[in-house]
Amino acid sequence: MEGKPWPMDSTSTATKLLEKRRMMYEVKEEFDQAKEEERERDAEFKEKESYLRAKDLSLQQGLIQFNQVLQENDLKRNKAKKKYEEELRQKRQKEERIEQLNHDIEELSFRATSLEKEVTKMRKYEDFLERVREKNPDDFTDISDILARYNTLKQSYEDLMKKRHQLEEELQDIKWTRDLYEKEKKDQLMELAIDIANTQKSIEDLDIIRSDLQKEVDTVSSTATEKDLELGCMLTAIENLYQRCKTEEPGIHHDRTTKVKETQNLNDYNYRAKTAVSKLNAIKAYIKDIEDILADERSVELLKESTHSSIDKGGVTKPEA
């Protein structure tokens, strides 16, 4: 539509109107055609959608039926498997029972054979006991009397053996208690020996430490004495220098704050140090005054020398005038 040429501007209004109306009809026809195509595509889409939905529903139903068949087969298979396992378990139990019964039969047969051998073996003892009874009719009237005497003696022997065993156990307990007591005492003696050795070592270490501390105390005392002597010399030198300043310059007074109070302890080194500092300040002031005086004297001397020099120069130049 956009590629079609528009009418020339020189055409009349009616022609322009007809042209526009024709264009509008063309646009409407194209729109109706596009709308019809869209409706056909929509109908085709709905038809395909219905077909796919029906097919999907059919597939779902088939899948459900297939799952049901699978579940039924699984149930049948599990049931058959359980039945097979149960029958197999019962078979194993019966086989084990048969094996146990055969083992019991063998044991009973072996026991019967053993008992027969034992009876055969004991028969000669019975004959022996019968002969003993016949030889001692006054002591034994029957074989049971002999067996009763034997059982009594056997019981007495077992009682004696038990008592002996009990006494041996008590003896072992007593020996064990004695050994334990001896071991504990040995351990205690060893611990005491170790404690004594440690204590002796501690005493020796303390003696060494005490000796070192005594040496340090002696060293500190000697150093303190030397420091006190040195401080005393310094204070004496400051006092001598201070007194010399006062003697040399009696007219200058810088000692207003350096007078020692009569109530002050002269052995107090802190106070003496403060006083020495004040005196040093005074000495510094005296020295400053002396330096100022010397400077003034040098200035006067320089002035005099300058004056004499000027006078000498004037005397030399006067004849030339």
The amount of helix comes to over 70%
Q: Give me the strand/helix succession.
A: HHH
Continuous helix count? 3
User: Radius of gyration, rounded?
Assistant: 72 Å
Note the gap between the termini: 135 Å
**Main β-sheet description:** none
Query: Taking all residues together, what is the mean pLDDT?
Result: 79
Strand content: under 5%
Outline the low-pLDDT stretches: 1-10, 260-264, 316-321
Shape, principal axes of CA atoms? flat
**Total count of strands:** 0
Determine the structural class based on helices, strands and strand pairing. Answer: mainly alpha
Q: What would your notes on this structure say?
A:
The chain is mostly helical. The chain contains 3 helices and no strands. Helix 2 runs parallel beside helix 3 (269-317).
